[in-house]
Amino acid sequence: MLQSSNQYDIVIAGAGFVGTLTALCLNNCGFKVCLIEKGKHPRFAIGESSTPIADMILRSLSSKYNLPWLYDFSRYGSWQKSHPGIVCGIKRGFSYYKHYPGKTFSTDENHINELLVAASVSDELSDTNWLRSDFDAFLVTKTKEACIDYFEETEIITATRENKKWLLNIIHDYNTAVIQASFFIDATGSGILADKLFSVKSSADNFLTNSFALFSHFENLPRWMDILHKKNIATNDYPYDADNSALHHVLDEGWIWQLRFNNDRTSFGFALNGNNKELQQMQATALWDELRKKYPDINFILKDAKLSVQPGSIIRTARLQRKMHNSFGEGWVAMPHTIGFVDPLFSTGIAYSLSGIERIAEIFSANKNFQEPLYGPLKEYENIISEELKLIDLLVAGCYLTMQHFRLFNAWSMLYFIFTISYEQKRLKNLPVKYFLEAGNDDLKKITTLTYNELLMITQQETISQADVDRFTNTIRERIKPYNTAGLLEPSSNNMYHHTVAKL
Ligand SMILES: Cc1cc2nc3c(=O)[nH]c(=O)nc-3n(C[C@H](O)[C@H](O)[C@H](O)COP(=O)(O)OP(=O)(O)OC[C@H]3O[C@@H](n4cnc5c(N)ncnc54)[C@H](O)[C@@H]3O)c2cc1C
């Protein structure tokens, strides 16, 4: 089964966009790389909404590792011009709509139940929702073009370390083979393989967030903007068409993502509060039906929904939060999404994963012979990833506390946008960025932890008054002042932010 060689510098397991891009970067650094995928492309994958940070990193990887074609994927316009056949969607920003049980969606002239945060100025320059089956499969073709050995429908059975080399026992179509590599990178997107090969466990210990998801892809869902217009809800001061964004519906029990691709397919899913035991115990279909029954407009969106061929069913996850107890060991390291995950809220996954590729490629290009000095940077990488997950967890956990109180949700979520803008600003100024999302910024973290503790107290009150909400909002407004280049929480904004991209 192994045609060219069975000796490699680096073997990467998992050919999602992380495994393939890591392989391409390391290949261009001069390593002999092999990529092993358990499944077969094109395969379904969830995790589609990209961000300006992800785009910046794509551009940086493109120039640093001589992958010129990658640049085009960093904006909707250039993606469409260069690769119209690879499906994606326009993502102009983050949009949130609060729904109340038993009631159809309504709002007022101050957009009291809406929040729209633009991330780009035009469709041409916009971020994208990636149809992962298309994009990931395309990246595999690029690894093949780069002459990286790629084995799909292949599993690693055992890994034995001898004389600073791995002997990996692999199986494909009932045939086994052994491949040798100096280093092993786990990009399989969960901790399962690391547990099997290295006995490294994952757990949800210490996460503040407790959520699970229920999702699929659908054909021809109605456009949310059409529904708003039918209700005579004014959208004339919207920064963009909300269907061309990461569209969220905020419920009491959690939230919905609705990500539209330009072939009329939509990724639609619920992320639900796992502390709600009743929901937790329901089967996928019963839960899906229950939420539709409770929220009339969600029911309307889904009433004629036809499942897309891939994945072809509604998928229900276990608790989403997980973190491996170690991120590396002798001769191996795991990529960010394999190490841990919090929740899809704020779409941090793709950018956080890409920032991991940047770091790993840098670490290996500076330590080409895999000697002892490699392990210092890998330890630092582990610490950084840990801090990043902690920050994302804190930001997301605060949102789950506030989902029944949209004004609190609105105020709290501004902290995420402040972290993002600060990070973007640094990257735009070419300043060194050690932590994704400024997770190493002690001042911002102090503010956030303090505010989270106050939020905990407010949300534990029996009733939350208008004055409590005003006070909380004012507190955040004051605390973010030194970083607030985008006018977040300015009363005149009416929850419509036209451009939050970092100003230089
Ligand atoms: C419900 C949900 C929604 C999300 N939404 C978003 C979002 O909107 N925006 C965002 O930025 N992020 C989102 N994420 C996160 C996003 O999914 C991840 O950041 C992204 O998928 C990471 O890519 P990856 O290549 O590391 O892993 P994956 O995409 O999981 O790819 C891993 C690959 O490894 C293969 N594999 C698995 N086991 C083995 C094995 N033993 N041997 C070989 N190959 C193996 C798999 O078949 C797969 O092809 C979401 C995550 C979840 C769970």
Report on this model:
The model has no long low-confidence stretch (mean pLDDT 96). By secondary structure, the protein is an alpha/beta fold. 38% of the residues lie in helices and 22% in strands. Helix 1 (17-28) runs parallel beside helix 4 (132-145), helix 12 runs antiparallel to helix 13 and helix 13 (406-428) packs antiparallel against helix 14 (442-460). The chain starts with 6 loop residues before the first strand and ends in a 7-residue tail after the last strand. Strands 4, 5, 12, 13, 14, 15, 16, 17 and 22 form a 9-stranded mixed sheet that branches. Strands 1, 2, 7, 8, 9, 10, 19 and 20 form an 8-stranded mixed sheet that branches. The chain binds flavin-adenine dinucleotide. Flavin-adenine dinucleotide binds next to helix 1, strand 8, strand 12 and helix 11.
Mind sketching the topology for me?
Blueprint: E1 7-13, H1 17-28, E2 33-36, H2 52-64, H3 76-82, E3 88-91, E4 93-98, E5 114-118, E6 127-130, H4 132-145, E7 149-151, E8 154-162, E9 165-172, E10 175-186, H5 192-198, E11 202-203, E12 211-219, H6 224-230, E13 246-250, E14 254-260, E15 265-273, H7 277-280, H8 284-294, H9 296-302, E16 306-307, E17 315-316, E18 322-324, E19 328-329, E20 332-334, H10 336-339, E21 340-341, H11 349-366, H12 375-402, H13 406-428, H14 442-460, H15 466-480, E22 496-497
Helix pairs in contact: 1-4, 1-11, 2-11, 8-9, 11-12, 12-13, 12-14, 13-14, 13-15, 14-15
